[in-house]
Amino acid sequence: MIRRTQRTKASIFSPAGELLRKLSAAELHERWQQVAIGAAVAIAIFLYASFTGESSVQNIIRLGLEQRSLTAANQHRFADLVDANYEIDRLRHDRLYLEHIARSNYRMVFPNEILYRHKGE
Questions:
Q1: Alpha carbons 23 and 100: distance in angstroms, whole number
Q2: Other C-beta atoms within 10 Å of 112: how many?
Q3: Can you give the chain as a three-state secondary structure string?
């Protein structure tokens, strides 16, 4: 009579399962120690890379702070540029503003106009 056995589906982990089943308890303990040592080495390398070099945590924080300060400086310069463009537009098109600048900054007057200055000025 033919003996029938129940077969299980093969998985990608079946070779590992066969190996673990064949290993004795001492070999299994040794294998787990090797895995633990490998994991510890991988963690040590990750931590070393995290705190040294160009991709270190300190360098990333420093670059973030530098980016914020540059963004703030850029915003201030952009505001100055907008103000300068506004003043250029007023100087080109607003005759009263141009007259105010000429009178207050350069003490200019129209012909046949008399300028009075007080002692405090």
A1: 97
A2: 5
A3: CCCCCCCCCCCCCHHHHHHHHHCCHHHHHHHHHHHHHHHHHHHHHHHHHHHCCCCCHHHHHHHHHHHHHHHHHHHHHHHHHHHHHHHHHHHHHCHHHHHHHHHHHHCCCCCCCCCCCCCCC
| Rg from Cα positions in the chain | 41
Q: Averaged over 34-40, what is the pLDDT? A: 90
Is this structure's pTM higher than 0.85?
Answer: no
* pLDDT for the residue numbered 54: 79
Query: Could you give the CA distance from residue 83 to residue 25 in angstroms, rounded to a whole number?
Result: 80
Please, what is the end-to-end C-alpha distance for the chain in angstroms? Answer: 126
Q: What is the pLDDT of residue 49?
A: 82
Residue 105 has pLDDT above 60, yes or no: yes
- CA–CA separation, 4 and 57 (whole Å): 61
